[in-house]
Structure formats: structure tokens, C-alpha cells
Write a structure and sequence with these properties.
By secondary structure, the protein is of the alpha+beta class. The protein folds into two domains: 264 residues, no CATH class; 77 residues, no CATH class. It is built from ten helices and six strands, in the order ααααββββββαααααα. Strands 1-2-3-4-5-6 form a six-stranded antiparallel β-sheet. Helix 2 packs parallel to helix 8 and helix 7 runs parallel beside helix 10.
Amino acid sequence: MRVPRTLGRYVAREVALYTLLGLCVISAILLMRNLARALDDLLGAGFAMSDLLALLRVLGTMLMLYALPVSFLFGVLLAVARLAADVEIIAMRACGIGMREIALPIVALSLVASALTGTLALDVEPAARRELRSVFASLVSRGAGLEPGRFRRFGDVLVYVDGRGGDRLQGIVLSDRSDPERPVIIFASAGTMAVDAEGSITLALEQGDIHLDNTSEREVRISFDKFDYALDLTDLLGPDGRKRASEMPFHDLRDTVSKVAVAGIPLHQGFADTPIDYELELHRRLAAPFAPVLFGLLGLPIGMRRARGARAFGALWCAGVAFAYYGSHIFFESLAERGLLTAPVARWLPVVGFAALAFWLLARARRVGG
């Protein structure tokens, strides 16, 4: 058993090295792509290194849930493909080493990756989503998204800012049409945005006028020195993070799903999503740890196809398998939201399907390899 033990360390080291390489590359790609979406708000609030570091940390934590399994698939594909291309797989089998001895170190690493993915899925990623809301609330309080000279919509309120100096806004115009029968237009010479402890945003206006259209021929005008106006930030920040399925702690999410399914208690208006969304989110977190194991079992038979350019083909296979797996989750999720599938079936059907495919490919590779 000395040779298989040495072989196991060798294969595990190869897979781990390529996985770390893939993790760096994939994380950087995903992070830059998502950071670019928030860059306008970041610059609009006045760029600060602390803001950038906070966004990088929170986004990196959230994206790690997907980057880790895909990176492990990348590592398995490239490591096994290199061994196959260098005829090392054939040499191992010539020495009496079978598929099981080659697969064992990969399975062991996949279990480690699955444990890390499970930890991320259950509570770490949802906590990062809640923190991301706080980061954006801080940016909004400093005027993020309010670019001078351009209109910005906050729910039913249209806001225009003529200029900004630091945290202060100048030349503010608000058009509130939440009540179509009584539209309100507010003009203010200056103002600031503030976030309270609960995350609500208030626009503190100074030196302005309120114009009320009460559907009569006479327009009502009210002058003020100071006036606080609460903004609806649903479009920018989304609903209350404590009620949103993707941001709830696991035990709260599980309790919510149990109350709806067992006791038949409907979700009241304080909840952001529909009941099916909470059940889908619960099973998403439970199914997430299986991704590294499935990717490891799939990567072994695919990578054993010896060919030139093994690394390039490994990267292509990695993209294809990851897209198919997570794409199938999105597809079946959409069917569940339309009521065509139950949430457990929608979440676990891709897992069962890819597991069947992995075992079929392993059996086929074992027969072909003798």
C-alpha cells in the first residue's frame, strides 16, 4: 500500500495546486465583474479606499460560494488531463493501480471543498448579503447614485441634484407621484442624506418650497427652512434584509418554511418574497455542498481523455460543466416559480441528474481503461 499512498499525495497535490490557481483567476473575474456594477455608486458617493475594501471583502465572501466548487472542477480537470496527456495514467494502470486508487484523493479533497461550501452556504454568504446592504446604505447616505445634472428614481420619487460638495447636495428637486391625485414637487437649495440605525434613508432638505397640486385651480405653496423627507429605497437597496430569503440566517429561514408548510401560516407584508422563494432558498443552501463532490466525480473521467492542449480543453470543459450545472438550477427554479415543480424537486433534480451522469462516465472510463 506504500505506492497508492504516495500516489494519493501526488494526485492530491496536483489537484490542490490547480484548484488554488483556478480560485485566484475565477474569483478575480467574478469580483471585477460584480464590482463594476457598483462602481458608479462608489464613485458617486465620493471614492474612499475603505469603501472599496469593504465592497471587495463582502463581494468576495458572497462569490466564494460559487468560485470554490468551480475552481475545484478546474483543478480536477487540469490535473487529471495533464496526467493523462503525459501518459502517467497509463503508467499507473500498468503498475496495477486502478480507477479507485486514482479517485480516492480526489474524493477526499472534494469532501473538504464540500464542507467549506456548506459553511459558506448556510450562514456565511447570507451574512455577507446583509452586510452588503449596510455598505450600500452607507454609500446612499453620502449621495451615492445621485449624479449632478441627472435624474434618479427612488420608488415613486424622481430626484434631481444640481451639484454636490462632499456630503452636501445643492439644488435639489423632488417629484413625488406616489399619489397620482396629489402630486408633490419640492425645491430645496441644499440638503444631506442620512441613514438611521434601522437602515432607513432620510433626505434632510434646507431652504425650499413644497408645491402641492390639490386638483383645484389654486396651487398650494409651502416654504420651509428645514424639512425631512423619507425616501423609498426598494429599487436601490431592496426590501428589509431581515425578511428577504437570500439574506435570512439558516435557522430563521428553516423556521419560516416550516411555519408556512406545516402550520399553513401565510407570509405577511413584511416579508420580501413569496413562500416558494423561501423554500427554494432553503433547498439551495442544502444542495450547495454537493457541487464539489459532483464536479470531482465528473472531472475525473472527462480529464482522463488524453489529448494535446489538455489545459485549454480542461478550461473549456470547466466552463461548460459549470454553466450546465448552475444553468439547470436556474431553469428548474423558474419552473418552480411558475408552479410547475415543487421547490425540493427543482433544487435536487439537477443534483441527482449530474450524479447519475458522473457515475455513468466513471463506469464507462473504467471499462474503457480496463
